[in-house]
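Entry 14. Structure prediction run on the chain below.
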Amino acid sequence: MSVFAGQGDPRRSVELLWRTADPPGRRRGSPGPRPGLSLDLIVDTAIALADSEGLAALSMRAVGERLGRSAMALYTYVPGKAELLDLMYDRALAELPAGYDTGRGWRTALRAWAADTRDFHVRHPWSLQVSPARPVLGPNEHAAMEALVRLLETSGLPAPVLRRVVGTLLHFVRGAAQAIADARAATAATGTDEREWWLARMAAIGEAAPDFAERFPALLRVSTAEEGAEPDAGEAGAAAPPDASFLEAEARRTFDTGLGILLDGIASAVPRPS
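Output returned:
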């Protein structure tokens, strides 16, 4: 389920993201709130909570409990959960490099960017729930976009095309990260081992559709191609049922293949000298 950033007060959210004002409830020159808390500590704790328990577990109360404080103590620093989510997402993005060396070519640099961004989302799977439809618009989000745009500018893409390539790459990388995150989370979320799930359904489909191989020959050819096995006409599925590690490895191979095709497409869009 997607969540949307930017639902708090616009001015207050921007002030907190860009650190242009004191925390809520504190006037300049007045005594600070109880020592031991800070905006950064609250945000880091919230990120750790979302990393371990998911975004559904995030609340001001839950963050406060991890810090040994009440939710009310947090409101001194953050107006509410909406602003906290913005701060979490932008602070986590600070993990990404601020730039990429294009000395070995833009394609090599772009592969590094794609892997870094994919791995960022896999480390913080909750970030995939933050919809790109409403960007956070914090300094680290802008810095991450700046790094990608500067990298792509070295390819020679015209600005209007480059802008749309940025969107294409972001969608591709988020989709790849989602596949890896889902492969890791499926067993814990459903209580069913990956191999058990596939075996049960392959057996059921084999009974329901004994002519599966004749009806879907192309699917079987593709699904067994890498293993080098011939599809069994009496089997509904292909080769051995996958486990979670196989699914993640396959998601990473799919990422590499798809990225290579995207890079070729980007290269073809670069204007050639007349």
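Residues 194-242 form one domain.
Filed with the rest of this week's runs.
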